[in-house]
Structure formats: structure tokens, C-alpha cells
Amino acid sequence: MTADPNAEPAAPVDARPLVVLTDVNKHFGELHVLRDINLTVHSGEVVVVIGPSGSGKSTLCRTVNRLEPIDNGTITIDGQPLPEEGRGLARLRSDVGMVFQSFNLFSHKTVLENVTLGPVKVRKVNKSEAHETAIRLLERVGIADQADKYPAQLSGGQQQRVAIARALAMNPKVIMFDEPTSALDPEMVQEVLDVMTSLAREGMTMIVVTHEMGFARRAADRVVFMADGRIVEENTPDEFFTNPASERARDFLSKILTH
Ligand SMILES: Nc1ncnc2c1ncn2[C@@H]1O[C@H](COP(=O)(O)OP(=O)(O)OP(=O)(O)O)[C@@H](O)[C@H]1O
Ligand SMILES: [Mg+2]
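== ABC-type polar-amino-acid transporter ==
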């Protein structure tokens, strides 16, 4: 896949709400980690979530495919409320791709097996079709030549690109990225961001927690700023970075932009 950071944005965002959180609250014991969260992400939209450590960004991501249950409020994916358990939950989880900081690949399976496993087991795709799709996706993220290796034989950037291919293989409606480049050596950050940027341009719906402000400016339709479990402000990247409305956001930006 070739990523051109200067390419025109993809097709206009259509108006279909894909991920909708309404009045979502969550506690860990006494700690109120998500406070009255209201967030709508439309099909084709790229939302970057930023905010200080501990503000609830990862928890927010994890609630969207119910890795974390919520206390109250509602979450819908493409109009369907999150099922609590069972087959409905498995189906929903396969609609919501996840890419974590720590890759989470199966270490005893090859790159190719990592990418075909979900489609075969969960989506019931036949093996040869899953194989073809996996090769195509590995080409798309630029690592088809590594298909028969094991994760430990790859660089961090390559492993993260496998994780992205694996998420794409499920044909998800939305992909959540939780600090996908934070564990990478600096020289590998860009190759992963390039893959993400071209996914964004191609119209993939994405929710991305990241400290990569260049990516946010280039690829995000909207920046959501969280602090202390709340969405403090949300705006276009241009507005947010040049003219943050809240003191909290100004303070945060001054710290990350000058460190
Ligand atoms: N499983 C858990 N049990 C108890 N507390 C938790 C749990 N997971 C997270 N927390 C707490 O909830 C708060 C929000 O955590 P979360 O990981 O969502 O923050 P974050 O914004 O992703 O931070 P970071 O930028 O450091 O990744 C933190 O105070 C954290 O310590
Ligand atoms: Mg986090």
C-alpha cells in the first residue's frame, strides 16, 4: 500500500451514525472513569481521542466492544445495542476491530495464521478464501513477504502492521486503535501511521487514541479531548490545535507540543 500524506481526503463522510455512546458512565470501584460520555462516530469518520494519562481513553475504547461493561447509558454499533453476552456479543466484537499498543499477536502462529484465524473461526470464511484475503491485506500493509514468519521474527512496526491486517481481515465496521505506535521504536512509527493514514483516506471508520499530533492533523475529521473521564471538547483538528476552547486542553497541548 502506498500512503500519500498529501492526498485529498476520501469520499465525503456519510451521515450514518455507526458508533453511538449516550450518557455512558463507568466506575472502577470508587473511581468514576467515564462521566456522561456522549459521542457519535459516523460511517467513514476518523476520530482521534487525546487527553492526559488516566483520563479514560483506553477505557472508552474497551467499552465499545464490551471488553469493559458500563454502569449505565447506552452504546450502539450500527444501530444495534451492545449485546451483553453470547453469540450476539461475538458477532459484535468482530464488527469492531481493535489494535492495541502491544500488538497482541498469537506468538505460536505465523503471520498468515494470525490473519486467517478470526475469519475462519468467527466469520466462518473457508480457508482458501481467508488465505487469499490475508495475502491481499498483508500486501496492503506492505509485509506479504513476511507471511510465513512468527511474530517474534518481525520488528515492532511489522508486528503492528500484522495486527492491522488481522483487524481488517474481519471486515469490521469500525477499528479502534489504542496508542498503536506508543510501543514502537521511533523509526517504525511512521510506517504504521502511513498505513493508518491510507486506511483513513479509503474511508475506514476509525477511533484512534494517539499522541501523534501530526497524524491527528493529517487524518482526523474530529479531535475529542478527554480529561478526568469527561469529553471536555471536540472539534476539527484545525480548530482544536490552533484555538483550543478549554484551559485544560490548552495546558495539555502546551505540554505535549513542547516536550
Ligand atoms: N481494570 C481497572 N481497574 C481499576 N482501575 C482501572 C482499570 N483500568 C483503568 N483503571 C483506572 O481508570 C483510569 C482511566 O484509565 P485509562 O486506562 O482508561 O486511561 P487512559 O486515558 O487510557 O490513560 P493512558 O494515557 O495512561 O493510557 C485510570 O485512573 C486507571 O488507573
Ligand atoms: Mg490508555
